[in-house]
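Issue: ligand-bound run for oxa(dethia)-CoA - logging full I/O for the record.

Environment: standard queue, default settings, no custom constraints.

Inputs:
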Amino acid sequence: MQAKLTAIGTHVPDRVIDNHYFEGIIETSDEWIKSRTGIRERRYTKPNEYTSHIAEQAIRNMADNYGRDLSDVDYIIFATVSHDHIMPSMAAIMQHRFGLKQAAAIDISAACAGFGYGINLAKALIESGLHRKVLVVGAETLSKITDFNDRTSCVLFGDGAGAVLIEAAEESNIGQGISGAEGKYGQDLYLSTHSTMVNGELINASGKIYQNGRKVFKWAVSRMAEQIGVLLEKNQMAVDDIDWFIPHSANMRIIEAICKTAGIPIEKALESISVYGNTSSASIPLAWQLGLEAGKIKKGDKLLILGFGGGLAYAGNIIEWAG
Ligand code: UT7
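Outputs:
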């Protein structure tokens, strides 16, 4: 049996936060944020609005696009670093909200690579014959775990959610994925609620995201450009065979640098960073949906998705859009 991605849906909260918002909190400017990151605005949830709420809306949007019943979904993979709570899992909450009685439910922790990891796992679950219809969700309320005293990171993050459906079919539209990690850089991007050590370094127990931006930036550009080559080779494809490149939207300058190094024309890159900021596991489905809404992505187009972030971890694949 083959795995086919058949629907996508997204949701962002209503509250728009422009760059001027930060000028009253930290020393920064709209000009710095736009020129160094490409971010013009992002969305924040309300105080009583959590990841489960926006994920639910994204799944509803996906279900509308799918147009068929979801009751035979038999597995839910939920990628997030901003859970409403660690236990029960967000996937189990979705299983209950949608009445998916047959579905197994797990959360995965792969930060900004979570959506790519989820797609690769879903494909494996279906092609092994273990499951037939898998819901993959990437959803975040990063505004709730942002350190507003840290000007190098607080301007970056936003809230948003995306969901895709992957099901058993005669023909696959999902390629051979890549998934990997370099745990030796774990201390360069972390989130912890209690004091502990990562790779021998004591980390801050603030419950907020910390990142060594410059180090992660350099790693992302060099490692991701290399992994694009690995992914293309694994699928016996060339850069020219790709219609749209959908990397994790961490920073517009990272996207431009990856494109330059990997030889991908920047016009082929789809991003969600400019209007939604860095939404971690949700950034790829959000950019994908923006590409659909703009009429760019057409049926049969080949999309190279590539997530990277905390871990440091990465995961990607090549998907032919089913239309
Ligand atoms: O999603 C997970 C993966 N995450 C990433 O991939 C993020 C990777 N990193 C980045 O996107 C960038 O490194 C940042 C956006 C975090 C920072 O941009 P940068 O161009 O690497 O800036 P920098 O850290 O080298 O700092 C340049 C200057 C510094 O001032 P000095 O030391 O040159 O005087 C910073 O203090 O910019 C200053 N700066 C700011 N100035 C105004 C840092 N943040 C701000 C700010 N407003 N918000």
